[in-house]
Write a structure and sequence with these properties.
about 110 residues, mainly beta, 6 strands
Length: about 110
């Protein structure tokens, strides 16, 4: 904005996914058919993030924000190769987190 203030809201949606080896497709169905029911599907997840920016002086910019506002847990899966029985590169495995930063232009 011309006043130097900024605000953003982000919605991240991850659709539900099923285990490939339980598919009827013969190209995908080459794994273990005895997967535990809890590992057959990961349910959908919604994450909401907020960020605020402000230009405090001609050369000073401030950033504040929070990701995963509602502290939505990542889905748990016993077959995962990731940390904590989930996929931390996709889901917010650590939950809600706050951030702050500033930039000074020289």
């Amino acid at each position: 904005m011309p006043s130097g203030l900024g605000f953003s809201v982000q919605w991240r949606h991850f659709n539900a996914v099923k285990l490939d080896t339980l598919s009827g497709d013969v190209d995908l169905n080459q794994g273990d058919q005895s997967a535990a029911p809890g590992n057959a599907k990961l349910s959908a997840r919604e994450y909401f993030d907020l960020a605020f920016t402000a230009r405090l002086a001609q050369r000073l910019n401030l950033r504040l924000g929070v990701n995963n506002i509602f502290d939505t847990d990542a889905p748990v899966n016993g077959l995962s190769l990731g940390n904590g029985n989930t996929y931390p590169q996709v889901y917010d495995a650590l939950g809600r987190y706050l951030f702050a930063g500033f930039t000074i232009d020289f």
